[in-house]
C-alpha cells in the first residue's frame, strides 16, 4: 500500500474522507502519519480516533519557514511516509521542501484551478459571477496553488448562494474527489507528463470530470 502522510491545519473533514476511504481493505493506501502546525486542529483528534500516529509541529516554534519545513520533512521521513496529501494545510511550503517531495505531494484546493487561487475562493467565485465552481486535486509545485491537475469536480453556482452555501456544496465534492484522486495515484494510473497529468486505464473516461 502507498504510505501516505497527511498535513492538516484545521477541521480535517478532508482528512476524515481519506480515513473513511482507507477503512475499505481494498483501498490501496495506508495513512501512516497525520501532522499539524496548529495545536487546536480537530484533524489531530480525528487521526487519534482512527489510531493514526500524529505530530504537532508548531510553526511558531521555529525561527524561519525553512526551519519549520525541515522539521516537518524529517518527521515525515521518520514515519516512513512515501507520499504526502495536503488537506487544508494553511502554511506556504518553501521551495526546498516542495522540490524534495516533487511528484509525491498533492493538494486539494476549493476552486476550479487555475481560477481563484489563494484564500476566500467561494467569495472570489461569487464576485466573478461564474456559473460553475468546484474543487481541484493537483500535484504541488513551489508557486501557490500551481501544479499538474489530477482531478476536478464541478458544482453549479445558484442565484441565492452565499459563500457558505457554495462552500458546503463544493466541500461535499472535495470529500468524494480526494479519495478518488489518491486511488488513481496508488494504482499507478496517474502519471505526470510535463505540466499535465495523464490518466490511464479504466478511469481515463468521464469519471473524473465530475
Ligand atoms: C477545504 O475546503 C480545502 O479545500 C481548503 O481548506 C478546507 C479545509 O477543510 N484548502 C485550502 O484552501 C488550501 N489552500 P477541512 O480541514 O475540513 O478538510
UniProtKB/TrEMBL annotation:
Record field: catalytic activity: N(1)-(5-phospho-beta-D-ribosyl)glycinamide + (6R)-10-formyltetrahydrofolate = N(2)-formyl-N(1)-(5-phospho-beta-D-ribosyl)glycinamide + (6S)-5,6,7,8-tetrahydrofolate + H(+)
Binding residue positions for (6R)-10-formyltetrahydrofolate: 65, 90-93, 107
Pathway: Purine metabolism; IMP biosynthesis via de novo pathway; N(2)-formyl-N(1)-(5-phospho-D-ribosyl)glycinamide from N(1)-(5-phospho-D-ribosyl)glycinamide (10-formyl THF route): step 1/1
GO cellular component labels: cytosol
Residues reported in the UniProt entry to bind N(1)-(5-phospho-beta-D-ribosyl)glycinamide: 12-14
GO MF, any single term: phosphoribosylglycinamide formyltransferase activity
Stored Gene3D superfamilies: Formyl transferase, N-terminal domain (3.40.50.170)
A Gene Ontology biological process term: 'de novo' IMP biosynthetic process
Entries under InterPro entries matching the protein: Formyl_transf_N, Formyl_transf_N_sf, GART
Residues covered by the Formyl transferase N-terminal domain: 3-182
Enzyme Commission number: 2.1.2.2
Protein's UniProt keywords contain Transferase: yes
Keyword Transferase: yes
Entry keywords, A to Z: Purine biosynthesis, Transferase
Function comment: Catalyzes the transfer of a formyl group from 10-formyltetrahydrofolate to 5-phospho-ribosyl-glycinamide (GAR), producing 5-phospho-ribosyl-N-formylglycinamide (FGAR) and tetrahydrofolate.
Annotated family: Belongs to the GART family.
NCBIfam families assigned: PurN (TIGR00639)
Protein name, entry field: Phosphoribosylglycinamide formyltransferase
